Amino acid sequence: MSRPIFLLGLMGAGKSSLGRALAARRGVAFIDHDLRIERLFGRSIAALFERGEPAFRELEHAALRSLVVEPGFAGSGAVVATGGGIVTDPRNLTTIAAIGRSVYLRVGVATLVERLDSEVERARRPMLAQVDLSTRLTELLAARHSAYASASITVDAECETEAILDAISSAL
């Protein structure tokens, strides 16, 4: 029986794109947790965030709980791209650890700024709207460092996709 793999990391770390590629390589389902949240609650992440971060984090947790209790999920080996802040709720880390393996995609702030510094990216990510990007990402990384460090596996996600996938596969 194969356990699900949960990709963790700050926004822009490549969780969704690497998740799709890893799932394809392993021949398993890919789940974008943010898209799941939007489907379950009928609104975009940005719209759900308008209720405030604590309210959004409760919805995020509810979506995770509903995923892990789905019949067959525990043994599916699915790859799940989580939202960057899922680690801020210790209940989520406990849930993930109980059912699967977590992979922290470590990416430096300079690379994240390069990937996220556009109107389109900022509009999709409520925590980045109208702030100094480098400062905000540095703050988020510092605040979440210990949670990301608790991942089963840590991988440098600043290299080529195939090298990242190889590193993940080797560590699993």
CATH H-level superfamily title: P-loop containing nucleotide triphosphate hydrolases
Class inferred from helices and paired strands: alpha/beta
CATH architecture: 3-Layer(aba) Sandwich
Number of structural domains: 1
What series of H and E elements makes up the topology?
A: EHEHHHEHEHHHEH
In which order are the strands of the major sheet placed?
A: 2-3-1-4-5
The CATH class, by name, is: Alpha Beta
Inertia-based shape: globular
Strand elements, count: 5
| Cα radius of gyration in angstroms | 15 Å
User: Mind summarizing the main beta sheet?
Assistant: 5 strands, parallel
Number of helices: 9
Helix content: 40-55%
CATH topology assignment: Rossmann fold
Distance between the ends: 14 Å
Beta percentage is 5-15%
Attribute tags:
172 residues; alpha/beta; Rossmann fold; 5-stranded parallel beta sheet
Write the SSE topology:
Blueprint: E1 5-8, H1 15-26, E2 30-32, H2 33-41, H3 45-49, H4 53-68, E3 79-81, H5 90-99, E4 101-106, H6 109-116, H7 119-124, H8 133-149, E5 153-156, H9 161-171
Parallel strand pairs: 1-3, 1-4, 2-3, 4-5
Helix pairs in contact: 2-4, 4-5, 6-8
